[in-house]
Design brief:
It contains one helix and eleven strands, in the order H-E-E-E-E-E-E-E-E-E-E-E. The chain is mostly beta strands. Strand 9 and strand 10 form a beta hairpin.
């Protein structure tokens, strides 16, 4: 009986080491792979889509980002350059919605968004992102977890391009 109690206490103390209920670790920023021990990503197409409020980027103009699909518990969301293979997180996220928080990625304190807990999130969870001044094309990349053992990698939005026109009018 004592051995059983000891084992239960030990397992309870170790279990948080095998998942991240309070958000993705910074070590996940580059490859976006959750550090859930012994779990592989789903091989099927993700039941999620990343929607954006605009297809164009304009300096100082926020973009709203929504992950649509079934409810989820975990998320890691970044903006990345479409013009390179860099895994650097670009721009900055604005005040995270409830049950989410900032994650420092690429030296940027507001470079990514992750879950703050395992409460259910849905498509009413809207994220707001501001583009950096020096980027012409970006896309949003996400990892979404329905639960600790069920997650999808490399969920990608369409590409957003720098908009606006620095034109002169000819009469």
């Amino acid at each position: 009986m004592e051995l059983l109690m000891f084992s239960l206490v030990l397992l309870q103390g170790i279990s948080p080491c095998f998942s991240f209920p309070n958000g993705a670790p910074t070590s996940a920023c580059d490859d976006m792979v959750p550090r859930h021990t012994g779990v592989q990503p789903q091989p099927t197409p993700a039941p999620y889509t990343i929607l954006t409020s605009s297809k164009t980027l304009q300096t100082g103009q926020p973009i709203t980002v929504t992950i649509t699909g079934t409810n989820y518990r975990g998320v890691l969301l970044e903006a990345r350059s479409a013009a390179s293979t860099s895994t650097n997180a670009l721009g900055s996220w604005q005040l995270p919605p409830p049950d989410t928080k900032f994650l420092q990625c690429s030296g940027n304190k507001e470079g990514a968004i992750t879950h703050a807990n395992t409460n259910l999130k849905d498509d009413t969870t809207v994220f707001t992102w501001l583009p950096p001044n020096n980027t012409n094309t970006i896309y949003f990349m996400a990892t979404v977890a329905q639960q600790r053992t069920v997650y999808w990698l490399n969920i990608r939005s369409g590409t957003l391009i720098k908009g606006g026109c620095e034109c002169t009018t000819v009469n």
